[in-house]
Specification:
11 helices; 243 residues; Sulfotransferase; P-loop_NTPase; 11% strand
C-alpha cells in the first residue's frame, strides 16, 4: 500500500459517475460534493480509458504475456520463438518479461489520483464524473472492471435520463435524432447490464428521479452509506445550473 499511497489516501474509497452528456450529471456531482469529505471532480477527457488500454496491453498482449510466462520455465520448455532471445538485448521486445502488470496498473492509477484528481487532505471519498465511457462499447466492461478493481472501495453510479429529452438538449440537437437514440440506448443497456452483474458496487440513478423525488436521492445516499442532509440537498436542487 505504501508504494501507492495516493491511490489509498481517500480512507472511504472512490465514487465514479458514469453517464453521457446532458444527463444531469453536474447536478449529481454537486449532490455528491455536498456530502462531508466527498471530493468528486468533473470530467477529465476519459483519461482512465486511455490508461486502461495501456494496462490491458501490458497484462494481455502476447508479446508481454508469453515472455513473462516463459521466463519462469526451463529453457527447453520455452516457446521456440523465445528460446534463443528471451532475456537477451537483441530480443525485439527486450525487457518486456520484467514488466509487472499489476504494479504498472496500480502505478498509473496512483499517478492519476496524484496529478489529476488531487484530493485535498480532508477528502475521504474521491472520484469524478465522465460522459464519454460509452464511446468505446467493446472496452466498456473492461474499463468498469479496471475502475472497480484498482481503486479501493470503488462504487459506480450509472446515470440515465429520458433519451428523447437528451436528444433535444445541448449539442445532441445537432445530431440525427435516430443516431442519438440508438447510441445512448446502447449506453443505457451497457449501464444496466453491468450494474445487474455487480449490484454490490453499482447503482443506477435517473435524472427524473433526482429532480422530482427526494426518495430517489435518499436511496442514493443509502447505497453510499452516507446520511442525507435534506436542507443541503434541497438547496442544490433549487440552484440553477447554467453551464
Amino acid at each position: 500500500m505504501n508504494n501507492f499511497r495516493h491511490l489509498h489516501a481517500p480512507a472511504d474509497g472512490y465514487v465514479f459517475v458514469v453517464t453521457y452528456g446532458r444527463s444531469g450529471s453536474t447536478l449529481t456531482q454537486n449532490l455528491l460534493n455536498a456530502i462531508p469529505g466527498f471530493v468528486i471532480r468533473g470530467e477529465n477527457g476519459n483519461l482512465t480509458q486511455f490508461l486502461g488500454r495501456a494496462i490491458e496491453i501490458v497484462a494481455n498482449d502476447d508479446m508481454y504475456r508469453w515472455r513473462r510466462e516463459d521466463l519462469a520455465k526451463p529453457r527447453e520448455e520455452r516457446r521456440p520463438y523465445l528460446r534463443p532471445i528471451l532475456g537477451k538485448p537483441f530480443d525485439p521486445w527486450a525487457g518486456a518479461e520484467r514488466v509487472d502488470p499489476d504494479a504498472f496498473a496500480l502505478g498509473l492509477m496512483d499517478l492519476f489520483v496524484k496529478q489529476v484528481l488531487r484530493p485535498p487532505k480532508h477528502c475521504r471519498v474521491a472520484g469524478f464524473k465522465e460522459i464519454r465511457f460509452h464511446e468505446d462499447p467493446d472496452f466498456f466492461p473492461t474499463h468498469m472492471d479496471i475502475l472497480r478493481t484498482l481503486f479501493p472501495k470503488a462504487r459506480i453510479l450509472f446515470q440515465r435520463r429520458k433519451l428523447e429529452d437528451v436528444a433535444r438538449s445541448g449539442w445532441w440537437r445537432d445530431h440525427p435524432r435516430e443516431h442519438v437514440l440508438s447510441t445512448l440506448g446502447l449506453a443505457n443497456r451497457m449501464f444496466e447490464a453491468y450494474a445487474k452483474d455487480h449490484p454490490d458496487s453499482c447503482h443506477i440513478i435517473d435524472y427524473e428521479g433526482l429532480v422530482s423525488d427526494i426518495g430517489h436521492i435518499r436511496a442514493l445516499h443509502a447505497f453510499l452509506g452516507e446520511p442525507m442532509d435534506e436542507p443541503a440537498v434541497r438547496a442544490i436542487l433549487a440552484r440553477s445550473l447554467n453551464h
